[in-house]
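S1.2 Input.
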Amino acid sequence: VEGQGLCCSVCVCLLQERGALGFERHYHVTDPFIRRLGLEAELQGHSGCVNCLEWNEKGDLLASGSDDQHTIVWDPLHHKKLLSMHTGHTANIFSVKFLPHSGDRILITGAADSKVHVHDLTVKETIHMFGDHTNRVKRIATAPMWPNTFWSAAEDGLIRQYDLRESSKRSEVLIDLTEYCGQLVEAKCLTVNPQDNNSLAVGASGPFVRLYDIRMIHNHRKSMKQSPSAGVHTFCDRQKPLPDGAAQYYVAGHLPVKLPDYNNRLRVLVATYVTFSPDGTELLVNMGGEQVYLFDLTYKQRPYTFLLPKKCHAAGEVQNGKTSTNGVANGIHLHSNGFRLPEGRAQASPQVELPPSLERLKQQANEAFACQLWTQAIQLYSKAVQRAPNNAMLYGNRAAAYMKRKWDGDHYDALRDCLKAISLNPCHLKAHFRLARCLFELKYVAEALECLDDFKGRFPEQAHSSACDALDRDINAALFSKSDNAEDKKGGGPIRLRATGRKDSISEDEMVLRERSYDYKFRYCGHCNTTTDIKEANFFGSNAQYIVSGSDDGSFFIWEKETTNLVRVLQGDESIVNCLQPHPSYCFLATSGIDPVVRLWNPRPESETLNGRVVVDMEGASQANQRRMNADPLEVMLLNMGYRITGLTSGGAGGSDDEDSSEGQVQCRPS
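S1.3 Output.
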């Protein structure tokens, strides 16, 4: 009996401990805490920009790396500097990592001198120096289940793997992006999935983010070495650097088509940071030159990209050299989400009534729309969509707000909403018409014409409306102009596959991987990421309830993950916020940027005076950032130097699309 009592006591203690841990993880970041987040302290000790931050596993140590080539280890809870050492680097430090299972004794740094250094903090010495890269090292990654192993990403296009148990103390090339994308490709960031340490995400030049299976790569290379014919190749035999299935690409569906336009305006697309959610099921990407994107790794979806007219492949879809019937309907080719527009003339269908609380929310959104408060309308519709995900009217209304706001990516999100609305209600007249308009705005002119013709057949009473006539004129004018973009599409294959020169030539394997890319789930707007290539975005909260990102305007932005709504903006730097690293178990955030300090943020007491770092006008800040992203690079440079540019600081937000002044009832009013 005594033994049983002891056993029961131990079980109760374990259950209480697990319950307390679960409670802490669920509630350590909540909405009231986010709305009270403010500056707690500034940690001073560096003499240059602070480019990287890293918590240890327990969260009682914080490491920082700087342009001053020093690393500092802090006690952030008591605002103390515990250790400062010169790393031996001769240029800016861009990445710092604690080596797992080293008792927080081993610290790894990567820098602009192309070197990776390993330091023993107990003796303040650099114990290993790796000089295998030939260009700047931008990120280091570690994995809990690989205690002696780490990886680096550098601007020579290589991902290297290091094993400190190896006597040679050398690294091996795990992934060579130049074999796929040419000599000009640069690797910018990487991270390992916390729940599957064989899954490695890599961000590089261009809009595509890559996910690799480390185990498959190693097994492939072992089998190649063991094969009797490993050294014998015929003229036609080509050794693949990666085995089939070892790589999966992700991309925001509209970006490959936008890439030529961005290049013409010297607007660079590059993934500056990638990170997994705590449960490993989501991948977050801060896309330089664009927005922040979240990819669902479990419920994947193909891009809603319209690539070919039906008349070119009437029998089915040609994808990766194979023909299928997936995604082709009524002249509209969806990349392969399997969505089909219903056949025949549309018939009226009853609208599903919303509960009173959601009806009020929808009316508030409609009122915001009527007042041309597009972002406010989008946020209210998004709240309603989260609570009523099967209501076609809400998706249709939000699409209208996206189309009016016209920020980067808004027309693609509107297209996605239109398709969702039609899938829920095939007779949604406005969604059908807006779909045609979105296709036109996304430069799929021929597909827009077919979609508009389909709309006229389904809704003949609208065939001669002012909105239809206006879109018809726009489409025909675009077809007649024979724009450069249209000529590019005739060149054989989608724009996303084409290279512009020998040095950035794209391999056949790369073309196939890009065509198999998956689309994003959520998009987060408001920040600006065009000036630096180390800007981070992170999950905040153990359940990844929030998304945080730095910005070129010196602020950092916080969004609700599920609604994508912006909930808080705080000034974190006098110039640019680059780094944001949430504490592993508290509502505690460390940030840094151009200022030579590390700033710590947590919920402030309700009795504390007004937080002077809160950006009250979040909408104004977001609009200014959209203008900044679409501005001429020279204007941005002058703005950063303190000059005021009239064209940049005035006018409407969202930039590259012209306002459509001639649209009729069918498009502009929400339902």
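S1.4 Remarks. The chain has a mean pLDDT of 84.
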